[in-house]
Design a protein that fits this description.
Elements lengths: L1 E6 L3 H23 L2 E5 L6 H12 L7 E5 L1 E3 L9 H8 L6 E2 L9 H13 L7 E4 L17 H5 L7 E4 L12 E4 L1 H5 L4 E6 L1 H12 L9 H4 L5 E7 L1
Parallel strand pairs: 1-10, 2-3, 2-6, 3-5, 6-9, 9-10
Antiparallel strand pairs: 4-8, 7-8
Helix pairs in contact: 1-2
């Protein structure tokens, strides 16, 4: 494991730097393999970076073979305000990227879990970059502490790329079942970024860096993965 920490004076600087990193990963992938695959977290911290990235790509003429997949998704209809895929489609509208959903259009949890497995079976190559966030309870993607499916989601030997997660308790602001990429699938990537903001999140991160117990703090599964280099992007 290795951590590379990047501190920025504000969220705008974080967004600009993360957008540059993602664009560089995509351009390298297109140059070497003719296609690029990214997994992107939702949440307030990384969204400005995606907007900056979309502005760059709108200025690039011609088709680009770029596929974006959410790291996790709430089991809601795709037009719901809480849908991550809705946000990605709005941000990257007008670009040539393809955005894959982890859920069915109506968000049904059981059908969505099957849909995600089938979709991801067509994208077995390593991601060119993964962007993760982290909650105040140290969850990342939708790998929540206390969720009944957490052990399966953290299992390094799992053959699952995604699974249903039922947070316990359900977050008040988003009381929905989720579909999440597993830790094993998130770690199958050429570049791994963790974006967070604020002193409280930095304290949670420090605790996870000091303690590898991923059942207590799921983000530790990424931070302490033996072969992973995690680029940590933080701003006040």
């Amino acid at each position: 494991m290795a951590w590379v920490e990047h501190a920025y004076p504000d969220g705008d600087a974080l967004a600009a730097a993360l957008a540059r990193e993602l664009d560089a990963a995509v351009q390298a992938a297109l140059a070497t393999r003719g296609r690029a695959l990214l997994a992107l977290a939702g949440g307030r911290t990384p969204l400005p970076a995606y907007r900056a990235l979309a502005r760059r790509w709108r200025d690039t003429p011609g088709p680009a073979h770029i596929v974006l997949i959410p790291t996790d998704e709430r089991c809601v209809p795709h037009d719901h305000p809480s849908s991550n895929v809705r946000e990605l489609r709005e941000i990257f509208g007008g670009t040539a990227v393809r955005i894959e959903a982890l859920t069915t259009h109506d968000g049904d949890p059981a059908r969505s879990e099957r849909y995600a497995a089938a979709m991801l079976a067509g994208h077995k190559e390593p991601f060119d970059a993964v962007v993760l966030g982290m909650g105040g309870d140290a969850h990342t993607a939708s790998l929540f502490p206390n969720a009944g499916q957490l052990a399966a989601g953290l299992d390094p030997s799992t053959t699952l790329d995604a699974l249903r997660i039922d947070p316990d308790p359900l977050p008040v602001e988003a009381p929905f079942a989720r579909i999440s990429l597993t830790a094993a699938r998130l770690l199958r990537t050429r570049a791994l970024h963790l974006a967070l903001a604020g002193d409280a999140k930095r304290d949670v991160l420090a605790a996870a860096m000091a303690d590898p117990d991923a059942f207590e703090r799921p983000v530790a599964a990424v931070l302490h993965a033996p072969e992973a280099t995690v680029h940590i992007h933080w701003s006040p």
